[in-house]
Design goal:
By secondary structure, the protein is α/β, with parallel strands linked by helices. The protein has one domain (3-264): 3-Layer(aba) Sandwich (Aminopeptidase), CATH 3.40.630. It has helices at 25-28, 45-48, 51-55, 109-138, 176-187, 204-209, 239-264, and strands spanning 3-6, 12-16, 58-62, 141-149, 164-167, 194-196, 216-224. α5 runs antiparallel to α7.
Length: 265
């Protein structure tokens, strides 16, 4: 399954592009054995965002692993963060910087094009069509792009990430009032740290589809995995931790949706 789309009734689409774990059998022999553990997955986010269904949101979640193709990278593979370490459209390295593929087995340009057509394009077609459907119904729509990551990955960033990393492409993908509302919801919980447009400002999904002037607002949340799971093997869900952070994330999403609806009056 490349992806699964649940169609909701409110002007909210939650996209989870990095939770997929499927590596097609015909490709598995190209990877180093470690890659089959899929350590850089955004584990359990469908479970953390289960509240989205209660809110009446649409939810689009990937089935294919980011090791096959990164659904949150541009189709031409332009780096998202110039001057920093970047993962590619078809990643060739773990987040640690180590090679994903066996020697000489990285995907060719032709294989990259095949993966783009097979996996990347259908996910983005579904995302775009669902945004259009919700906007046609409500006159506006909020896209929430959900991510999680280990808080310390020296190859990608220095030091330790804040707990909650809110991204609106430096204010280009959502009205400023929405970012303020999301940050205010996070700030009500001083036990977690947050930042707006820090190291992670939003990937291709946020930047490509967020069009505030057209009443399409996009926010990315990159959150530390330690907030709801064990961020080391076996990457298991931690119910007690999750029960503390889930209401905070829900409040952030609800604040963004309320701000979006207020803009429409």
């Amino acid at each position: 399954m490349n992806f699964h789309l649940h169609r909701g009734t409110v002007p909210l689409l939650v996209s989870i592009p990095h939770m997929g774990t499927e590596i097609p059998p015909q490709l598995r022999g190209d990877y180093v054995p470690r890659a089959l553990e899929r350590e850089d997955t955004d584990w359990h986010l469908d479970r953390l965002y289960a509240f989205a269904h209660e809110l009446g949101a649409s939810v689009l979640q990937a089935g294919v692993s980011r090791y096959v193709i990164d659904l949150n990278r541009p189709p031409d593979d332009t780096p998202m963060y110039p001057g920093a370490s970047n993962t590619e459209l078809c990643p060739t390295r773990f987040f640690t910087g180590d090679p994903l593929y066996r020697e000489g087995r990285a995907p060719s340009p032709e294989e990259k094009a095949r993966r783009r057509a097979t996996y990347w394009q259908p996910y983005h077609d579904a995302l775009q069509e669902e945004l259009a459907r919700l906007k046609a119904r409500h006159g506006h729509v909020l896209l929430w792009d959900a991510h999680s990551i280990r808080a310390e990955i020296p190859w990608l960033f220095e030091g330790r990430l804040p707990d909650l990393n809110i991204g609106t492409a430096d204010g280009k993908s959502a009205d400023p009032s929405i970012a303020r509302a999301v940050a205010a919801a996070a700030a009500r919980h001083p036990e977690v740290t947050h930042v707006v447009n820090g190291r992670f400002k939003g990937g291709t999904i946020t930047r490509r589809y967020g069009q505030p002037a057209q009443q399409v607002h996009a926010v990315q949340l990159e959150m530390g995995q330690h907030l709801y799971m064990r961020d080391a093997p076996p990457w298991n869900w931690e119910p007690e931790a999750a029960s503390r952070i889930e209401p905070i994330v829900r409040a952030m999403v609800e604040a963004a949706l309320a701000a979006c609806e207020q803009l429409r009056g």
